């Protein structure tokens, strides 16, 4: 099980030096990958009365592809988006950005994608919130062709490409695409299309039920269910032993990857986040992951 970290997006702030110090510190502790969340804009609660979203206009988010381009030169970590909200973006542009990050990092990008929940953000980016599930399937198909073919002609419901291609192509052909998923339709989509997935629940009956749906969909699509990756998540609560116990549960559940999340734990500085990661590292020994 490969062990990485969740980049503390909402707490690390706008200082590029802090971003660098966190990523390099995590790598020095032996963690293998860095996972970044994604939001382009936040909603202003003074305008959107009764706003119930997890994030708002005050929540700090670095743009994942630009962030990864920066970190590609500073670390040897695998760079993981979890998730880029794909249907609110132009498909060919995301394919180009991902190819560039993969090239600059020497093939260290894992592209996690999903549908998102923020209608305010979809409106700001000029995309239809209601068709996001149907669009993402077509987008993944098109991106994989762009990453592996010199010249692509494609006509779908939402995207059209006529005799065009990316140059340079990425190192990984195609780049691994993982899905965020937390509903039966999303689980079936994982089974049909994804290289791996990010569960939104801990190990237990709900995870087992979701995996069964994914594996059935994969088999029906003629794919090998055992080839799909699964990344669990451990949130830091101040107790390294508790983190270790949950990590073991993820390993027993068949997770191929694990990310340690230190956000929302009352940590106020990069050093605090790295201190928590150091405590977890002593328990999990990520260098052996």
Describe the structure.
By secondary structure, this protein is of the alpha/beta class. The chain is built from 10 helices and 10 strands. It has an 8-stranded parallel β-barrel, surrounded by 6 helices. A two-stranded antiparallel sheet has the order 5-6. It is globular, with a radius of gyration of 19 Å. The mean pLDDT is 95.
Task: Give the arrangement of secondary structure elements.
Blueprint: E1 2-6, H1 9-12, H2 16-28, E2 33-36, H3 64-72, E3 78-85, H4 91-104, E4 109-114, H5 119-124, H6 132-148, E5 152-155, E6 160-164, E7 177-180, H7 184-193, E8 196-198, H8 205-220, E9 229-235, H9 240-252, E10 257-261, H10 270-284
Parallel strand pairs: 1-2, 1-10, 2-3, 3-4, 4-7, 7-8, 8-9, 9-10
Antiparallel strand pairs: 5-6
Strand content: 15-25%
Helix-residue proportion: 40-55%
The pLDDT mean sits at 95
Biggest sheet character: 8 strands, parallel, barrel
So what's the overall shape? Answer: globular
Class inferred from helices and paired strands: alpha/beta
Lateral arrangement of strands in the main beta sheet: 1-2-3-4-7-8-9-10
Gyration radius, rounded: 19 Å
